[in-house]
Specification:
The complex is a heterodimer of chains A (184) and B (784).
Chain A lengths: L1 H10 L1 E6 L2 E6 L10 H8 L18 E4 L2 E4 L12 E3 L9 H8 L15 H14 L5 H8 L9 H23 L6
Parallel strand pairs in A: 1-5
Antiparallel strand pairs in A: 1-2, 3-4, 3-5
Helix pairs in contact in A: 3-6, 5-6
Chain B lengths: L22 H5 L6 H4 L9 E7 L5 E7 L1 H5 L3 E6 L3 H4 L33 E2 L5 E8 L2 H10 L1 E6 L6 H5 L26 E5 L2 H7 L2 E9 L11 E7 L2 E6 L4 H12 L6 E5 L15 H13 L3 E4 L13 E9 L5 E13 L5 H15 L6 E10 L13 H19 L3 H8 L10 H14 L17 E11 L13 E7 L5 E4 L9 H12 L10 E2 L4 E2 L14 H28 L7 E3 L2 E3 L10 H6 L6 E7 L10 E11 L5 E11 L6 H20 L5 E2 L4 E2 L17 E7 L21 H13 L10 H7 L4
Parallel strand pairs in B: 1-12, 10-11, 14-15, 18-19, 25-28
Antiparallel strand pairs in B: 1-5, 2-4, 2-6, 3-5, 7-15, 8-13, 9-10, 9-12, 11-20, 13-14, 16-24, 17-18, 17-23, 21-22, 24-25, 26-27
Helix pairs in contact in B: 11-18, 14-15, 17-18
Classes of the chains: A alpha+beta (184), B alpha+beta (784).
């Protein structure tokens, strides 16, 4: 009986590693089997970088990384994330090359990589996942990887450019780190 | 890579290619939007509101039983249409102003008061009506709504505007209007709202007469940041956090409808995730019932639309007919436009699109056509309400306008570019318009216009594919003189004793980049202080308790209106500094000047003192200048812009691929080059979506919209968009230091028509009702 209760208690809780820190959640109150990962991250933990815009997997604004791969957090149940490693945009380092490239994008002919900025965290995280897997993508590969994200302001040209610039930054940092006397 | 544009007048900060000032904040996910500012951890006692959305296109509630809902644990407050606080509310409208101005209820721009706040009538599927619930969670509130037993009187409905005009059609507002056709109003004017010369006589004698029709559908804004508000109303103080882009008007709306004095209402907003005209000016009934729920519950109440509910309004679908007469030499002598617009369930600002804008266009582009008639009818139907949307009215007009140009030029055997330059200019310039000529020639050069083939006569690709090019042009909006209705533009500038600056140029940032323009404009205006962008503090938060009117992001004019005012603020700051320096140096103020942060005086040639050093010797009090200026209304006309498109049409499947888009804007003065090009590029996404894929589809049998989601309502993604070439020019100039003109809103306007003319050039058959889905091409080719 006691053993069953203990098992039941464990089953009624989840453990997720968010931005490097393990977090425990008990099911109950506003956390149920149908609670989405997006809700948990925003409302319980205050990681409001990700946005819930469509809440049905159609826009990409809620994208986070699960074990390094991009997932739509509105389509992942919190209980499904049990035991997994989640990274939100808040978990990126301050000098993340993708964030930098999106923020800086301004060269002639491409516009900026963001206007209203609502879709931006989703694009950044999708791009981050792409570059984790493929550090030097072609333009076609960028379009393929980011084709599931909507930017209603229409900054696609600037976004694609920013991803390629981020790729160049990653390569430059790697070269700098590899070179004798280069920065770590 | 593009070389970018060259400034007519070299400037230090304005007009450059540089990052957005909010780029880092947004790219790192730190920027806070209404939904982020109103999470439960910030308001631990907040409640969530849900409201009944009508399941019927036309119905009335006869009675109800809400006892089960009231008994549901977690339900804190329920409002119904019978609640005295609701029943006492005045009939209203969701677009009191076109947003440049702030107005009370009795001065709304178009006086159609057809909306009941939480009323018992449903006029479309999705209408927010009848019952609103505040509960501990959204799920409980939803469940409570389901538990309300409603006795519906389901009424006949009408979706098609032509059918709605028939005498036997079901009346959308049977208790308010005897017909579905909107009566003429003082702002929009009579049905025939423009009648110059004698078009009938001219058609009778014209050497060439052509007639055309275009049909524009109901595209929707698709802002990603769903409507969201949180209202806290305790004792007599009401505070509302929201993503309305018009803080001052939101405060006025609540004041007028709920009777609180203005100093007891505080409206706060920060970044807004895209606006595009949604919700007109934000005089939305949901602010009112959310507020009344908060009052009843005694706790803050949050109401946020889900994606489906964010399909709240659309561009007015419009059927345009046009007849044009010309001489064989290409002189257009007469044009007659007639439109029938589907305003949907509520009139709001629809006649702005159908009459006000075309009336403006009569001055801005058709001023030299001697005989001109314009006629319009707005028609109620039981569909999504028409509304402001980026390119309001202009998009529908350009679809027919660019068609008539192409049609007439073909009939005359004339290049349509030459036809435009020969005939179109604004009222305050003579033909030809230098601005129009410049944008068309530049676009033509870049698309390869000279090598264009005859319609349908190009070489086929891969056997079944045909390519073609086309263009459309339009006057830009708005220049400073057109912003008269906006009233005072207010800016507060404070110079700290360490020569840093606090800037309050209140304007809710919706993505257009006016905040960047304002900071650059401030740095430019204070150039004599030798300061940089990093020395200026600005805030994304607009709060009506700051006592400054927010300059609402409409007409794309905020990018320069506040910067023009800052030139005056800077002059005042300079005068104050002169007085301080003169007193300290024992000189007369006119003997002192400043450059790059240093004090200069011919009377003291060896003086070596910075402004910062001067201020450090004084009382350390900040110097604040509050400037409030009305726009200069000297009419200067406007510049023009043009879009060129290259398409490839698969004649076997009907699929249209846009291969290239060129966008040429004469800006007057480019305020922020990267932002301007971002607007040019971004607008193509919305314009191309409207032209090819975006469309709201109804089940005609039930009146239920079928695609209120982003899987079936298809917004272009990165994978769909072609290469876009943004081109900025500075040819025309308006009043003031910069004399700029808005470009952002307009960039969507010409895209559909440029694509349609390119399709005609490709396949030799015209399709004029958008969106151009493959079946329309197949049908036009006679293969359907």
């Amino acid at each position: 009986m006691q053993k069953n209760e203990a098992a039941s208690s464990r089953e009624r809780g989840i453990r997720i590693r968010v931005n490097g820190q393990w977090r425990d959640f008990a099911l109950g109150d506003d956390l149920s089997a149908s609670t989405t990962l997006a809700y948990l991250l925003r409302e319980r933990l205050g990681f409001t970088g990700l946005k819930v815009s469509c809440d049905e997997g159609a826009c990409g604004a809620c994208t986070v990384l699960e074990d390094g791969a991009a997932v739509l957090s509105c389509m992942v149940l919190a209980v499904e994330a049990d035991g997994h490693d989640i990274q939100t945009i808040e978990g990126l380092p301050a000098d993340d090359p993708v964030v930098e490239a999106f923020a800086e994008q301004s060269e002639p002919g491409f516009g900026t990589a963001l206007q209203c900025g609502y879709c931006t965290p989703g694009f950044v995280m999708t791009a981050r996942a792409l570059l984790n897997a493929n550090p030097s993508p072609t333009l076609a590969e960028v379009k393929e990887a980011l084709g599931g994200n909507i930017c209603r302001c229409g900054c696609y040209a600037g976004i694609a450019r920013a991803v390629l610039n981020a790729s160049a930054k990653i390569a430059a940092r790697k070269a700098g780190a590899a070179a004798p006397g280069g920065r770590a | 890579m593009s070389e970018g544009f060259t400034q007519r007048v070299p400037r230090k900060f304005l007009g450059k290619y540089r990052p957005k000032i909010d780029g880092q904040e947004k790219a790192s996910g730190k920027a806070k939007y209404a939904d982020d500012l109103t999470i439960k951890s910030r308001f631990p006692d907040l409640l969530y509101a849900r409201v009944l959305h009508s399941p019927h296109p036309h119905a009335r509630i006869r009675g109800f039983d809400s006892s089960k809902a009231e008994a549901l644990p977690g339900v804190v407050a329920i409002l119904t249409y019978k609640d005295p606080a609701i029943a006492a509310l005045k009939l209203t409208n969701a677009g009191w102003t076109d947003c440049v101005d702030t107005v009370p209820w009795d001065r709304m721009m178009f006086q159609y008061r057809d909306r009941r706040v939480l009323g018992e009538y449903a006029a479309w599927v999705g209408d927010e009506m009848g019952f609103a619930v505040a509960a501990e969670s959204e799920e409980i509130a939803e469940e409570a709504l389901r538990l309300i037993d409603i006795d519906w009187e389901v009424l006949p409905f009408v979706l098609d505007p032509i059918a709605a005009m028939r005498p036997d059609a079901p009346l959308v507002h049977q208790d308010l209007f005897a017909t579905n056709v909107l009566p003429p109003d003082p702002t929009g004017g009579q049905d025939v709202f423009e009648d110059k010369g004698d078009v009938d006589a001219d058609f009778a004698r014209a050497e060439v007469v052509v007639e055309g029709r275009s049909i524009h559908h109901n595209a929707t804004q698709g802002s990603m940041d769903n409507w969201c508000c949180l209202v806290d109303w305790k004792a007599d103080q009401l505070t509302v956090w929201s993503n309305s882009y018009a803080a001052d008007q939101l405060r006025m709306h609540i004041h007028e409808m709920l009777g609180l004095p203005l100093h007891k209402i505080r409206a706060i907003a920060s970044y807004v995730g895209g606006q595009f005209g949604r919700g007109d000016t934000g005089d939305q009934p949901f602010f009112l019932f959310t507020a009344l729920l908060a009052k009843k519950a005694g706790r803050p109440v949050k109401y946020r639309h889900n994606r489906r509910e964010s399909f709240l309004n659309s561009r007015q679908p419009a059927i345009y007919d046009c007849k044009a007469g010309a001489r064989r030499d290409g002189t257009i002598t007469s044009m007659y436009f007639k439109s029938i617009g589907n305003v949907g369930a509520y009139a709001d600002l629809s006649m702005f699109a159908l009459k006000f804008v075309p009336k403006e266009l009569a001055e801005m582009v058709l001023a030299h056509i001697p005989n001109l008639r314009m006629e319009s009818y707005g028609v109620y139907t039981n569909g999504l309400p028409g509304c402001m949307m980026r390119g309001v009215g202009n998009s529908q007009f350009n679809l027919i306008f660019g068609h008539m140009i192409d049609l007439l030029a073909e009939r005359l055997g004339m290049d349509p570019i030459d036809l435009c330059v020969k005939n179109f200019a604004h009222e305050w310039e003579s033909l030809p318009s230098a601005s129009l000529d410049a944008v068309l020639r530049e676009g033509a050069k870049r698309i390869g216009w000279e090598s264009r083939h005859l319609p349908g006569k190009g070489e086929p690709y891969e056997g079944v594919k045909r390519r073609g090019i086309g263009f459309s042009m339009h006057p830009a909006w708005h220049a400073e003189w057109q912003e008269k209705r906006r009233g005072q533009v207010q800016v507060s500038m404070t110079l700290n004793p360490d020569c840093t600056v606090l800037l309050n140029a209140a304007s809710i940032e919706i993505g257009g980049g006016s905040n960047t323009c304002n900071v650059l404009g401030c740095a430019e205006a204070l150039g004599f202080l030798g300061i940089g962008v990093g020395d200026i503090h600005w805030t994304s938060v607009v709060d009506t308790n700051d006592g400054i009117k927010d300059c609402v992001q409409t007409d794309s004019a905020v990018s320069f209106l506040q910067s023009e005012v800052m030139m005056h603020s800077a002059r005042d700051i300079k005068e104050r500094l002169r007085e301080i320096a003169a007193a300290h140096l024992k000189l007369r103020p006119e003997q002192v000047d400043f450059a790059e942060g240093r004090i200069l005086s011919p009377a003291l040639p060896s003086l070596s003192m910075t402004v910062k050093e001067l201020l450090r010797k004084g009382d350390m009090a900040p110097i604040t200048v509050n400037k409030s200026l009305a726009p200069d209304t000297t009419p200067t006309g406007i510049p023009f812009f043009a879009n060129f498109a290259e398409v490839e049409v698969d004649t076997s499947t009907g699929k249209v691929d846009v291969l290239k888009l060129i966008v040429v804007n004469d800006c007057g003065t480019v305020m922020y080059a990267s932002g301007a090009e971002g607007q040019q590029i971004g607008g193509q996404c919305m314009g191309m979506g409207e032209a090819l894929t975006e469309e709201i589809i109804y089940d005609k049998a039930t009146g239920i919209p079928l695609n209120f989601n982003w899987i079936d309502y298809t917004i272009p993604t990165m994978a769909d968009m072609p290469d876009i070439d943004p081109v900025l020019l500075e040819v025309w100039k308006g009043v003031g230091e910069y004399g700029a003109c808005g470009i952002g809103e307009g960039t969507v306007t010409c895209t559909p028509r440029a694509i349609l003319n390119a399709i005609y050039n490709a396949i030799g058959v015209r399709v004029n009702d958008i969106p151009i889905k493959p079946e329309k091409i197949i049908s036009a080719l006679g293969k359907g």
